[in-house]
Design brief:
Low-confidence stretches: none
Radius of gyration: 27 Å
Strand order of the largest sheet: 1-2-3
CATH architecture of the largest domain: Up-down Bundle
Number of domains: 2
Mean pLDDT: 82
Largest sheet: 3 strands, mixed
CATH class of the largest domain: Mainly Alpha
Distance between the termini: 45 Å
CATH superfamily of the largest domain: Cation efflux protein transmembrane domain
Strand content: 5-15%
Structural class: mainly alpha
CATH topology of the largest domain: Alpha-lytic protease prodomain-like
């Protein structure tokens, strides 16, 4: 809950900042009448909308689980990120539209030096805020906050590109480059919007996070106990900042319920030490079978029915299968 409140506060500041930066870019456009600066301002409109969409999603995510949402409200972050990505793509399309409308017009560009200073200030502020936002979002496992941070970073990169182009225009007086810059930035914006949509849809569809699974499996291999005979049917699902982990966990068949539960507690403790406390486990315990003896490393087993042959290293391929392992 503490991380959820922090996420909400950060997003609130980001939302208010986006309004200030948008107004600054509008002022820069009024000074210069540069189409490139106008496209940057149009993208900032999306920043404002996306910031408050993200703020609402974090408010929803912070709600505790209830009867209607037994896994919590974390999926709201994926929806928010999808909306934000869609708005970024829409901004790119708007930029293309405005550029094409003005393609044949010779609009005068004025006071580029003043415009460059104002836009440069927004770029610096955006980069600092975006980096901090993305870092906190990653630390707290908040996709909405990460998306907001990446959005601000994208805005920074596009602004830097625009500044570079305006400097060239200022030096060469080739004012038609203003429209070329606007078109180039629109492609960059649309591509980054697509990437955010792709990530959010992966979360909505419970797409497996392969890198996370590999890290989880490596952690268990490095801390494996002799009573941990087998692990299979492993699944990891993200609900916002919450990780939900399902697995089948094979232990010696003669352990009583309390002893088996102690092994699960160890599994949970090791995982939370590595990945944080925002994790819930649904672990199904299985008793070992005679064919498990060949991969069982337990040396004090009095009921062993076959000799130990080799330790079976857990890998991504063998732990996601829904069957007990054997040689």
């Amino acid at each position: 809950m503490q991380s959820a409140r922090q996420n909400f506060r950060v997003q609130l500041w980001i939302s208010m900042l986006s309004v200030v930066l948008f107004l600054t870019k509008i002022i820069a456009y009024q000074f210069t009448h540069s189409l490139a600066i106008l496209t940057d301002a149009l993208e900032s409109i999306v920043n404002v909308i996306a910031g408050f969409v993200g703020l609402f999603s974090l408010y929803v995510v912070a709600k505790p689980r209830d009867i209607d949402h037994p896994y919590g409200h974390g999926k709201a972050e994926f929806v928010s990120a999808a909306v934000e990505g869609g708005l970024i793509v829409a901004a790119g399309i708007m930029i293309i539209y405005e550029t094409i409308l003005n393609l044949l017009e010779q609009n005068p560009i004025n006071q580029l030096d003043t415009g460059l200073i104002l836009v440069g200030i927004t770029a610096v502020i955006n980069f600092i805020a975006g980096t901090a936002c993305a870092r906190i979002g990653k630390k707290n496992g908040s996709l909405a906050l990460e998306a907001s941070g990446k959005h601000l970073q994208v805005d920074t990169y596009s602004t830097i590109g625009i500044i570079a182009g305006l400097v060239i225009i200022l030096i060469t007086k080739l004012y038609w480059l203003d429209k070329v810059i606007a078109l180039g930035m629109s492609v960059f914006v649309i591509y980054n919007g697509y990437k955010i949509i792709r990530t959010s849809l992966a979360g909505i569809m419970d797409e497996a996070d392969i890198e996370l699974l590999k890290q989880f499996i490596q952690t268990l291999n490095e801390n494996r106990r002799e009573n941990w005979i087998d692990l299979h049917n492993l699944r990891v699902i993200k609900y916002g900042s919450l990780l939900h982990i399902d697995c089948h966990f094979t232990v010696p068949w003669y352990l009583n319920v309390n002893e088996a539960h102690l092994e699960i507690d160890k599994l949970v403790d090791i995982t939370k030490d590595r990945f944080g406390t925002a994790i819930e486990f649904f672990v199904h315990t299985d008793g070992c079978m005679p064919f498990s003896c060949s991969i069982c490393t337990k040396t004090t087993c009095d009921v062993r029915q076959a000799a130990f042959k080799q330790r079976l290293e857990w890998t991504l391929d063998n732990v996601i299968s829904n069957r007990k392992h054997q040689l």
